[in-house]
Design goal:
single chain, 13 helices, globular, alpha+beta, 4-stranded mixed beta sheet
């Protein structure tokens, strides 16, 4: 049977990850949030960093948002960090970590997949996970060509995943199918000839491995041009925190202007059209340096800090790249 074979594969090939050595729901939840949009290799380092600095949910809840965002810097999708911090406060207010699927879903930033992962792994709840790995494994093995990003597809795969789940081995099975998709049944160049499910795989039989799963193209990619001016004034610089309703909410950036005409004539161009790719948009940034002995008049949302203190502020990855071009 499919699920029996997966469990057997997992016992021999499952990844040895630190958050699998515990039943602490805080550690498991933290790993799931970090890995939502992050590869395991990169996420592992951040998980260890968070666990070392904030070993309990109470410690994380007591941190400031700035501290959490700074620790998250480099992972991207910063709404995850803000939701993580908010949810930590929810848990502390509740008095215990939620232990039912319904209550886990009430946590900020936790959807169906993350709730099923936390619930099954930490509490043994019989809830099947459905993520990109699961879609791929099920679509290929059972030859399902219903698009995974349609309402019909989501319902179909969720029902099938739940049907295949062994209720008494939910944690092991969920981790097995996720690992199988990440290690064996990969998006590109899957190891079909070394797969114990090869004989029963419909996609392999019909030559459709590279065609499944099917996903409708709905994402429209837009371009955006940003112009930044780094002000250097007697060892200080000006930055502001980005507000809600746009990218990088809560992170800090140098002076941003809306047109080339707003760049002071005494500013020097350091880099032009630096490309930075996000999920649904491509950013191009010009970067200027303005060195002055007198502070220019700036909007009220900018603050002056010592240049040496920049490391204490959470910055978008693009800004980190731009700052690397600054002359010392």
């Amino acid at each position: 049977m499919f699920n029996v074979a997966l469990l057997e594969w997992f016992r021999e090939n499952g990844r040895d990850l630190p958050w699998r050595q515990t039943r602490d729901p805080y550690a498991i939840w933290l790993s799931e949030i970090i890995l939502q949009q992050t590869q395991v290799k990169q996420g592992w380092e951040y998980w260890e960093r968070f666990m070392h600095r904030w070993p309990t949910v109470e410690a994380l809840a007591a941190a400031t948002e700035d501290e959490v965002l700074r620790e998250w810097q480099g992972l991207g999708y910063y709404s995850r960090a803000r939701n993580l911090h908010y949810a930590a406060k929810q848990i502390v207010t509740l008095g215990h970590f939620p232990d039912t699927l319904e209550d886990i879903k009430q946590m900020k930033g936790v959807g169906d997949y993350t709730a099923a992962a936390i619930g099954s792994i930490a509490f043994g709840l019989p809830a099947a996970v459905v993520d990109g790995n699961v879609y791929r494994v099920l679509a290929r093995h059972f030859g399902i060509d219903t698009p995974i990003n349609t309402t019909e597809g989501k319902k179909l795969f969720a029902a099938l995943a739940q049907e295949l789940l062994p209720p008494n081995e939910a944690a092991a099975y969920n981790q097995a199918i996720m690992d199988f998709g990440a290690v064996q049944c990969t998006p590109q160049s899957p190891k079909c000839m070394e797969c114990m499910l090869a004989e029963s795989c419909e996609a392999l039989r019909s030559g459709r491995v590279n065609e499944l799963p099917v996903k409708l193209k709905t994402l429209k990619v837009t371009e955006r041009h940003l112009i930044y001016i780094y002000i250097r004034c007697q060892g200080q610089t000006a930055i502001r925190r980005r507000g809600p309703g746009d990218i990088w909410q809560g992170l800090w950036e140098p002076m941003l202007v809306d047109a080339e005409s707003a760049v002071p004539p005494t500013a020097s161009l350091l880099r032009q059209n630096v490309k930075h790719v996000l999920t649904h948009r491509v950013l191009y940034a010009d970067f200027y340096l303005l060195e002055t002995d007198k502070r220019p008049k700036l909007p009220s949302d900018y603050i002056w800090i010592a240049e040496s203190a920049l490391d204490n502020y959470a910055l978008p990855r693009l800004i980190e790249v731009l700052l690397s071009f600054l002359p010392k």
